[in-house]
């Protein structure tokens, strides 16, 4: 684990700064009021970009995007990233619906919309902990950052992107800072175990399949990813 953290130091740099801010606000203001501090900082011109950026954390959208962008370059990396998203995403949903199912979102906790900044019809009430978008974003980008860990700039960019997408959950009134912090940590740790235990199996399997079969996989996954992307773009709030 220590080596994994060190290998991801450039990716983790912006995340550690973000986590420190979240932890400080949680300690200083408490679980709920720390949300009001962060959510109160908003601008009309930033609302729509934040709404667009938050969809990068959607597990289906994120998986489809990774397939379209990286499938031909490094199929092994994409499959590992998608497996990490699937595993951590399912775990987050299990925690939401079965363990912390009584933890409501800000709009419910603060009993109305007057105290919470939200955008358009993006209104959520239940199943707050942990943040699923923060989980899957951290999981996917951790895997990608680990694969390109010898570079310096791109892992930092991925770390910043993870921070921004995670922050949109607070900005849009969907989650408390503690939800986001827990989601990020769950995603990062989940990515570690995926890389440690599943990546060798996936690499072994795809290393054995023929070129024609690999191309068949790529075409099938490309079509599936395209369908998912189009569906989400047409019906983003369904």
Architecture overview:
The chain is an all-alpha fold. It has a single domain, classed as Up-down Bundle (Vanadium-containing Chloroperoxidase, domain 1). It has helices at residues 2-7, 9-29, 33-39, 44-53, 59-70, 75-99, 106-109, 132-147, 153-171, 177-208, 211-234. The longest helix has 32 residues, at 177-208. The mean pLDDT is 90.
SSE map:
Layout: H1 2-7, H2 9-29, H3 33-39, H4 44-53, H5 59-70, H6 75-99, H7 106-109, H8 132-147, H9 153-171, H10 177-208, H11 211-234
Helix pairs in contact: 2-9, 4-9, 5-6, 5-11, 6-8, 6-10, 8-9, 8-10
Summarize the structure.
The protein has helices spanning 2-7, 9-29, 33-39, 44-53, 59-70, 75-99, 106-109, 132-147, 153-171, 177-208, 211-234. The protein is mainly α and 238 residues long. InterPro entries: PAP2/HPO (IPR000326), PAP2/HPO_sf (IPR036938).
Q: What is the second-level CATH architecture?
A: Up-down Bundle
CATH fold description: Vanadium-containing Chloroperoxidase, domain 1
Radius of gyration: 18 Å
Percent range of helical residues: over 70%
The ordered H/E elements are HHHHHHHHHHH
Task: Please tell me the total number of domains.
Answer: 1
Structure annotation, total helices? 11
Q: Termini separation (Å)?
A: 39 Å
What structural category do the secondary elements indicate? mainly alpha
Question: Briefly, what CATH class?
Answer: Mainly Alpha
């Amino acid at each position: 684990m220590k080596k994994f953290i060190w290998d991801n130091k450039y990716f983790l740099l912006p995340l550690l700064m973000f986590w420190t801010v979240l932890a400080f606000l949680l300690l200083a203001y408490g679980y709920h009021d720390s949300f009001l501090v962060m959510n109160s900082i908003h601008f009309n011109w930033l609302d729509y970009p934040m709404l667009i950026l938050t969809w990068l954390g959607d597990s289906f959208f994120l998986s489809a995007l990774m397939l379209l962008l990286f499938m031909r370059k490094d199929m092994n990396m994409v499959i590992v990233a998608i497996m990490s998203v699937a595993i951590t995403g399912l775990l987050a949903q299990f925690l939401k619906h079965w363990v912390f199912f009584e933890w409501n979102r800000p709009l419910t906790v603060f009993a109305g919309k007057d105290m919470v900044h939200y955008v358009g019809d993006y209104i959520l009430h239940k199943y707050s902990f942990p943040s699923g978008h923060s989980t899957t974003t951290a999981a996917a980008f951790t895997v990608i950052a680990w694969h390109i860990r010898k570079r310096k700039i791109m892992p930092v960019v991925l770390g910043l992107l993870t921070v921004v997408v995670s922050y949109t959950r607070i900005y849009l009134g969907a989650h408390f800072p503690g939800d986001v912090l827990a989601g990020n940590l769950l995603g990062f740790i989940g990515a570690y175990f995926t890389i440690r235990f599943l990546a060798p199996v996936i690499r072994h399997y795809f290393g054995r399949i023929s070129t024609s079969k690999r191309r068949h996989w790529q075409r099938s996954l490309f079509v599936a990813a395209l369908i998912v992307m189009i569906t989400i773009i047409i019906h983003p709030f369904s």
